[in-house]
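Re: that backbone. Tokens:
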């Protein structure tokens, strides 16, 4: 309810829930790798680094694992 008070007109709880579901519903269907990442366990750091290195832009190609 507090979040809804930040917008005008104030949405109903149902409208707010529908909007959140529409924009973040994809989080309910994570892949196996995404579930591991979502846990944010530091022991999974090497997987996260490997996935970043594999991104098509090569932006993280030289990422160093510390």
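Recovered sequence:
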């Amino acid at each position: 309810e507090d979040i809804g008070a930040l917008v005008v007109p104030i949405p109903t709880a149902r409208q707010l829930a529908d909007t959140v579901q529409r924009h973040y519903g994809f989080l309910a269907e994570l892949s196996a790798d995404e579930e591991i990442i979502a846990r944010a366990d530091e022991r999974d750091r090497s997987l996260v680094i490997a996935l970043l290195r594999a991104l098509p832009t090569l932006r993280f190609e030289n990422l160093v694992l510390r």
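The mean pLDDT is 84. The helical segments are 13-24, 32-39, 45-53.
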